[in-house]
Amino acid sequence: MGSMDREHELLALAVSIAREAATLAQAMRAAGVDPVATKSTLTDVVTAADRAVERQVREAIRAARPGDTVLGEEFGTESEAGQGVRWILDPIDGTVNYLYDLPQYAVSLAAEVDGTVVAGVVINAATGKEWTAVLGGGAFTGGRRLSGSVQTDLRQALVGTGFGYAAERRLHQAAVLGGLIGEIRDVRRFGAAAIDLCLAAEGSLDAYYEKGLNAWDHAAGGLVASEAGLLVTGLSGAAAGPDMVVAAPPALYKGLHDRLVELGADKGP
Ligand code: LIP
Using CA atoms, how far apart are residues 161 and 55, in angstroms rounded to an integer? Predict the structure, then answer.
């Protein structure tokens, strides 16, 4: 089997599993949602749906591909990157939106082979909108190939971002935004990184950046954005990761990147 065939096979499985997961998330949302625990701070909540969706996805992957491993937000991982196929899962990205019944939360599922993400799907579980990508095969939504924003002027750019659960980090992120917001069109904070990255991929945002993301927040959405032609990196030569994820089309990338470096966006708490 060719590599691309394998990657499309992994994508097809990811899509099938993610759709079932989104259906469960929506059904549990409709039945009513309460936080069952908090994690890093009192506002970093987890719901029964986060856990139920992750369990369902793990069971589906185990049934289909018993030798693979999973890195999930709620139950962690049994392996490190680089050994065979590892699935990277955020069962409900945008958990606070989910808790408040704000229609911006996603199942995000990526397949990583030997440390490289090769297929990914993001589904807004509230609306059913779906974005997919295969490494080297493009990014799509609704059968339409994505190519990002055509905006070339940062001063006209609508930029997505987000804020962490720790107050001291939010204060730093707000200070960074305070240094940027007068130099762009405006900012949007939708509350789910996976969706933000896909919105940037389709040009509904001109660019996106955020400090503090975990791999499960950006693995699938980052592939969608990069396959749409955006540059998806950290700052100053770093890869996208917890210090920073910035996703922008080439025409906007340098201006946004350099301003974020000046503002110390990847520094601080
Ligand atoms: C969320 C991210 C979002 C960020 C939130 C939170 P979660 O992930 O998707 O971009 O701003 O603070 O981290 O916690 O809902 O999976």
Answer: 29
Residue located nearest, by CA, to atom 12 of ligand 1: 164
pTM score over 0.90: yes
Out of 95, 120, 145, pick the residue that ends a domain.
145
**Tens digit of each residue's pLDDT (9 = 90 or more) over 44-63:** 999 999 999 999 999 999 99
Which of 119, 145, 171 finishes a domain? 145
- Pick the atom of ligand 1 nearest to 94's CA: 15
Range of the domain at 20: 3-145
Q: Say how far apart CA 27 and CA 137 lie, in whole Å.
A: 33
For a mutational test of ligand 1's pocket, the pick from 213, 216, 218, i.e. the residue with the most ligand atoms closer than 8 A to its C-beta, is 213
Q: Are residues 141 and 160 in the same domain?
A: no
Specify the CATH number for the domain of residue 93: 3.30.540.10
Residue labelled with tokens 């922008």? 248
Atom of ligand 1 nearest to the CA of 93: 16
- For residue 213, the ligand 1 atom closest to its alpha carbon is 13
The continuous run of DSSP H or E covering 35 comes out as strand 35-38
Taking the CB of residue 3, how many other CB atoms lie within 10 A of it?
11
pLDDT in tens, 143-152: 999 999 999 9
Using CB atoms within 10 A of its CB, is residue 5 exposed (0-12), middle (13-18) or buried (19+)?
A: exposed
d(CA 69, CA 78): 7
In a domain, 257, yes or no: yes
User: What is the rounded CA–CA span in Å between residue 179 and residue 43?
Assistant: 26
| 141 and 168 part of one domain | no
Q: Which of 54-58, 79-83, 125-129, 244-248 has the lowest mean pLDDT?
A: 79-83
50 lines ligand 1 (CB under 6 A): no
